[in-house]
Amino acid sequence: MRSSIHGAAAAAAVGVLVVTAGGWVGYRQLAGQDCSGKIELSVAVASELAPAVDEAATEWEKKGAAVDGTCIDVTVAASDPVEVAAVVAAKHGAILAGVGQASGTAVSPDVWIPDSSTWLLRLKTGGAAAFEPGNGSSIASSPVVVAMPEPIATRLGWPQQELGWTQLLTRLNSDRPLKTGIVEPTRDAAGLSGLLSLMTAAASTGGETAEQERVGALRALASGASALRQDLLAKFPTAGDATTLASALGAAALSEEDVIQYNARKPPVPLAALYLKPAPLPLDYPYAVLPGIEPAKASAAGVLFEALTTASFKDKLAAQSLRAPDGNWGAGFDAPQGAPSPAGGDSSVAPPAQGGVAAGGLAPDAVERAVSSWSIATLSGRMLCVIDVSGSMKKAVPTANGATRQQVTTEAARRGLNLFDDSWSIGLWVFSTNLVGSRDYQELVPIAPLSRQRSELERGLDRVVSSSGDTGLYDTLLAAYKDVQANWEPGKVNSIVLFTDGKNEDADGISQKALLAELKRIKDPDQPIQVIIIGIGTEVSKSELDTIASSAGGGAFIATDPTKIGDIFLRAIALRKAPA
Questions:
Q1: Mean pLDDT, the chain, as a whole number?
Q2: Which of 237, 323, 420, 517 has the fewest CB atoms below 10 angstroms from its CB?
């Protein structure tokens, strides 16, 4: 038996199964006296939960354990979920907005216990088609709360008055907004949960007001965003005087565990945990056995799961300020003031996720929409939007109450425009065949900062009307590429987003072979341009669009149902790579 526990340093370590000093929470040989051989099982655990998992493994060791007479060696690593997500995404061919590349030294574990099932959901919807983690059942939970300095919370009626997300949204968008922060929702599950709740609250207002509320909330949160949780916590007030309170962070979506641990350090200004209604998606710590591991390891993982779901494990969770999966808590749990009581009919605690599906049956596209909207609202870029106006765009979309493909596409572009702040530069082209004499494309609005031409772009979208021509795809794409390249801007993602519902039909234009050769010739690695092509309907050639987009440096997305163009547009923009 070997052991290498590094106490608090290990519990706080951020790494992904990388053998470095302080990187391991623990190493346990869990075996009965009569076992032989060895099954090595690597387990990556969210840092705040790792000590409880390690302690349970220690007890399992003392009792002796094996699988079919074979010894089990378990390594438990405290891991930042976003780092493991990057590794798993790379292994399974998924792209997750805002996650970035995996560390070159990171290794995919056999078992992953992140802080939220939304990670599993995002991997699945992000392109990991074969990603089916086993089990996925929750082993712990922590409600997501709005953390607020107690003096500010008291002014809002805490802890006597019950507060809701719509009230918080109102404070965010007021003339004197509450200074609110968030950990990047693309990289933090509690931040994503809070963002989802705010987006839902904005949608409930209905109509154009909902869009304004949503965009306002995104930009307010973005102004106080932090990449790391500890950086966000450092923004809370360090003194209780009025000046400090006014200048410091006033509210942030965090886990209940975060608030308990923060207050345990006896800060000058404690945090109140506000349990807003409706209850946001909690952290649910799913036990995910990753696909592709050997049957013997899968069996060992099953036995370990049993050790983490015993009655005594609830007390180990309490020592780490965590609840059991059903919302109950164990002995020694120090509940914040106003905390909802343990589960048992208390609707203020949202149910944890089970089986790798987000709690409450949360739709995957709701998560993707929130992540994509955030990415667009917090990034800056330079983009040329190119819209197909060939005759086929006049076709009605059955699922859009009779609106045409042209109308659905233009509306998606208009809604996307609302998300871009004034730091973006955007231009608008349309294309068909022989649209301007023998030329297939027409510039409606040149690329320029939105700060001075937002209304002009709105008017430009009003002028997008279907022609009677065909699809002059190749000539248009080449011309658009050269236009963006001619005025390439450093420090921004320079991109082209082209919408089309057909194949190239311009017999007098450039061939695909010539297009690919010319793109290869003029492509400059020091001035990258990302080309995103969104195919509309079932008549596009995915292979054609994939070939063109990949050679130009980008990707193709297909909206077989044109009503989904808006979501695909947001996701495509969000997945752009930031400039090096």
A1: 84
A2: 517
pLDDT of res. 327: 93
- Report, in angstroms and rounded to the nearest whole number, the Rg of the chain calculated over CA atoms: 26
The residue with greater pLDDT, 95 or 280, is 280
Note every long-range contact of 203-209, with CB atoms under 8 Å and residues 24 or more positions apart, other chains counting: 204/166, 205/166
- Would you state the structure tokens that stand for residue 212, as one six-digit string? 């304004």
Helix, coil or strand: residue 451? helix
Rounded Cα gap, residues 126 and 572, in angstroms: 11
> Between the CA atoms of 241, 247, 252 and 258, what dihedral angle is there, to the nearest 10 degrees?
-50
Contact 3, 72 (CB under 8 A): no
Tokens of 256: 């209940």
Tell me the C-alpha distance between 214 and 281, whole Å. Answer: 19
State how far the alpha carbon of 60 is from the alpha carbons of 65, 138, 219, 252, 565, in Å. 7, 20, 49, 38, 52
H helices present in 224-319, as ranges: 229-233, 242-247, 256-264, 295-307, 313-319
522-548 in b/e burial notation, b at 16+ Cβ within 10 A? eeeeeebbbbbbbbbbeebbeebbbeb
**Two tokens, residue 265:** 């350090």
Spatial distance between the Cα atoms of 199 and 203, rounded to a whole number of angstroms: 6
Q: At residue 5, does pLDDT exceed 90?
A: no
Helices (H) and strands (E) in the chain, counts: 20, 17
pLDDT in tens, 236-245: 999 999 999 9
Dist CA 396 CA 378 (whole Å): 35
In the 8-state DSSP scheme, what is residue 335?
A: P
